[in-house]
Amino acid sequence: MAARENQTYLITTIVFVLLSLAFLLVAILGINKATEYADLNETYQADLNYQKNLADAQKLQAEVLKSYIGDLGHSVAEVETRINSIKRAADRVEGATQKEEINAIFTSVNTIRELYQQDMAAHIGSDDPEQQAQDFTWRSLIGNLSSVLGKKHGELNIKSVQALDAQRDAESKIAAMESTVEELQKTLKKTQDDLVTEKQTNQEKQRQLTNALEESRSNTAKLAGEFDNFQQAARARQNELNNQISGLTNENVLLKNKINVYEREVFDRPDGQIVKVSPKIQSVFIDLGQADGLTVNRTFAIYDRTVTNFEKGQHKAMIEVTRVENQQAEARVTDEDPNNPILTGDYVLTATWDPGFRVPVALAGKFDLDRDGYDDTDKLVQMVKRNGGDVVARHDAEGNLTGKIDSNTRYLVLGESPQLGADANPEVVQAMKELEDQADRNTVQVIGLNKLLNRMGVRGKPRIETLDSRNNGFTSRNP
Hints:
Elements: H1 2-69, H2 79-91, H3 96-124, H4 129-132, H5 138-198, H6 203-266, E1 272-278, E2 283-286, E3 299-303, E4 317-324, E5 329-336, E6 347-349, E7 353-354, E8 357-364, H7 377-386, E9 389-395, E10 401-403, E11 411-414, H8 426-441, E12 445-448, H9 449-455, E13 464-467, E14 474-477
Parallel strand pairs: 8-9, 8-11, 11-12
Antiparallel strand pairs: 1-2, 1-6, 2-5, 3-4, 3-6, 4-5, 7-8, 9-10, 13-14
Helix pairs in contact: 1-2, 1-3, 2-3, 5-6
C-alpha cells in the first residue's frame, strides 16, 4: 500500500516537473517573441519617423523653389524659415544614411539660394542682394527686364520691317529691269534673224536694220548703266539701314547697362535710418558716419519707415548734419510737420549722395533759386556739392561749356532757356542743345530743378511780406 502511494507521488512529481518545464518553455518563447515584436515595432517607428521627415523636407524644398520662382507660394522673406526647418528635419532622424539623404536636400536648397542671390545681385545692383531681393523673384525679375527692353525691341522690329520693305522694293525693280533686258535681247535676236533673211534681197533694208540694231545696243547699254546705278543706290541704302540697326543695337546695350546701374533709383533703398530722436533739442542721430564718407552740413530728407517708393513718396521732414562720428552722426531738424513727427526707424535719403560716392550731375540753362531775376547757378553748384553731388558739366552765362556728359552721369538738370529776342545769347542756346544731345547719346535722365531740389530734400521757399508805405502798407520781397 505504501509502495503504491509512493509510486503515485512519484508520478505526480514527474507530471508536475514536466508541466513546469512546458510552462517555462512557453514563457521563454513568449518573451523572445515579445522582444522580437518590440524590436520590429521600434524599427518601423524609426522608419516612419524618417519617411515623415523626408516628406517634410521635400515639401519644404518645393515651397522654397516656388517662392524663388514667384507667384506660386510663400514670399521670399519666408524662405530662410523653411530652409532651417529642413535642417531640423535632418536632426530629427537617427540613421546616418537617413540624415545624409535629408542633408542632401538641405545642401541642394542652399545651392539654389546661392544661385538666387547671385542672380539678384547681378540684376538688381545691390551690395546686399539678400536684403534687397525680398520683393523680387525670378519671374518678376524677368518681367522687369522684359518691360524695359520691350520698347527698344519694338523699334528694332520697325526698322527691320522697313529694311525688308526696301529690299523687296529693290528686288521688284531689279526684276522689272531684268524683264526689260530679256525683252530687248529677244528683239535683238529677232532683228538678227530678219537681217540674215533680208540681207540678200534688200541692202537698204539691211542698213536700216543695222541702224536699229545699233540703237538697240545703245538702249541696252543705257539700261544696263541705269541698272548698275540703281544697284549701287540699293547697296548704299542697305548699308545705311544696317548702320542704323547697328546703332540701335549699341544703344540697346547701353540702355541695358544703364538699367543695371540705375535700377536702384526705381526701387531705391534709403541711405540710412534714424537711430535716436531727441525732441527737446530738435536733433536726431542717424546710422551714417565718417566710415561712409559723411561730412557736416549734409542735408537729408526723412521718409516714413513704411514708405517703399521714394521716387513718388513725400518726405516728412528735413535734417542737416552737425556732428559726425565714425559710425553715426548727429543732425538738427530744419523742417518738420508737427502732425507727422520723426520716429526711430524712419529712413533718410538724398538724391545727390550715396555712401562713399559723389553722384555726377550736369546743369543746363538759367537757375533762379530765389526768384529775384538773377542767375543762381553758382549757388546751385555749391548746394549740389554740399549734398554729396558733383557737377561734371555746365555752361556759363556766355555759353562756354565746361566738362562733358558721359554714361556715368546720373542727371541732366534743365533750367530756364534764354528769352528769345535781340538780347538773347545764341551761344547759351547752342550750349544747352549740346548738353541735351550729349545726355541723349548717353541715355542720361533729364529732370527739372524742382525734382532735383525735392530729391535733395529742399522745398520751395515762401515769399515774405513786410510793411511798407506803398501797396496798401505791404510789399513783397524774396528771403
